Amino acid sequence: VEFLYCDLASMKSIRQFVQQFRAKNCPLHVLVNNAGVMLVPERKTEDGFEEHFGLNYLGHFLLTNLLLGTLKKSGTHSHNARIITVSSATHYVGKLHLNDLQSRCSYSPHGAYAQSKLALVLFTYHLQHLLTANGSHVTANVVDPGVVNTELYKHVFWVVKVVKWMTAWLVFKTPEEGASTTIYAAVSPEMEGAGGCYLYNEERTKSADITYDEELQRRLWTESCKMVGISDESSRA
Length: 237
Hints:
Helices cover about 45% and strands about 10% of the residues. The chain is of the alpha/beta class. The protein has one domain (about 10-235): Rossmann fold, CATH 3.40.50.720.
């Protein structure tokens, strides 16, 4: 195991990390996009993005795109490279505001968090479409880990914290249990060659209806490319 520093809230840090990783000339068979914040007060990343959208979504969007070349070289016909992105059931109630992705008009921690998780599902589906169109030996899937007992809840109201403390043993998964579906997506032979799936409890399930809107997927992708400063490969695909 080797640690390389990467701050997903910083576009500069992400680019530096990718440069460091590429210099090692290593193959890349599995990329898990798992970093995140939840229900934080209104604040911005160093690049000026609303923190939920900037860290939870745009950070992973840029990281994945910068590593795609390595992933494509690493995958083979019999062993595809795999991209796993961790979303949340909150995406079901999320709304994507393409004209206000930074939640400037009216900020809600819950709304901003749900939007970032919805964006991750849309991103994954469009990414799989592009990978398939290019004949790449890479698959992209999205995971719902369930309700997991982690420090992610440190910004919720104190009443919720008390309820969480009282009921965690009953309704919350342990971090190990929460990671099981991500690990399944990363290494299970059953997922070999399967992409564009939404997984919960190690099973394929249906995500929100809006996530299958291909026009919305494309528009979000194009806007995301502009925001992080990369070329839009989907327009050529």
